[in-house]
Amino acid sequence: MNKLTDALERIIAWRRKYKPTEHQILKPGLSTEQLYEKLKRFPNQLPQEIYALYQWHNGTNDDLWRHGLFVYHSFLDIDNALQYAERLINRESERNYRMQQGKPSYLFPFCDFQGEYFAVAGRETVTKSTPVFLIDTVGEVSTAFDSLTNMMIALAECYESGI
């Protein structure tokens, strides 16, 4: 997961340089044991990348979009991510609709902006990565990135190049 954490650190380095008053918005990361305990509520296995993300940091202290870590999306802490997954994203009607469209039935959101989410798919077994999906405000799901690592590399490059 070095590429993932390297990209995350590049994003933080940019933010420290250009938004120095906001660099302390990240919560401390969780241990593997804490993650297993919290994620046992989720009905599927999540990719190793999600574990690496939440070991790095457990979301932000402020879920307002003004502190959107990943451009304008807030990085959800694990408890909020699980609540959104249970109460909104993985309701039976949502899962059935996604399955009819050939999309993953269970999704785990890790970023939010006013009802728009980035999420990864839950699977039967643990994998290194899964695609990252964008869930729009009306619940439509589309593939956004082929992995969380590639998403963070792309975001780091956007920050660094001024996009």
Largest sheet: 5 strands, antiparallel
Mean pLDDT: 90
> Please, how many helices?
6
Cα-atom radius of gyration: 15 Å
Query: How helix-rich are the residues, as a percent range?
Result: 40-55%
Supply database-style keywords.
163 residues, alpha+beta, five-stranded antiparallel beta sheet, 6 helices, 7 strands, globular
Structure description:
By secondary structure, this protein is an alpha+beta fold. The chain contains six helices and seven strands; from the N terminus they run H-E-H-H-E-E-H-H-E-E-E-E-H. The protein has helices at residues 2-18, 32-39, 48-56, 78-89, 92-100, 148-161; strands spanning 26-28, 57-60, 74-75, 107-113, 116-121, 132-135, 141-145. The strands form two sheets. It has a five-stranded antiparallel β-sheet. A two-stranded antiparallel sheet has the order 1-2. Helix 1 (2-18) runs parallel beside helix 6. The longest helix has 17 residues, at 2-18. The chain starts with a helix and ends with a helix. The relative contact order is 0.17. The model has no long low-confidence stretch (mean pLDDT 90).
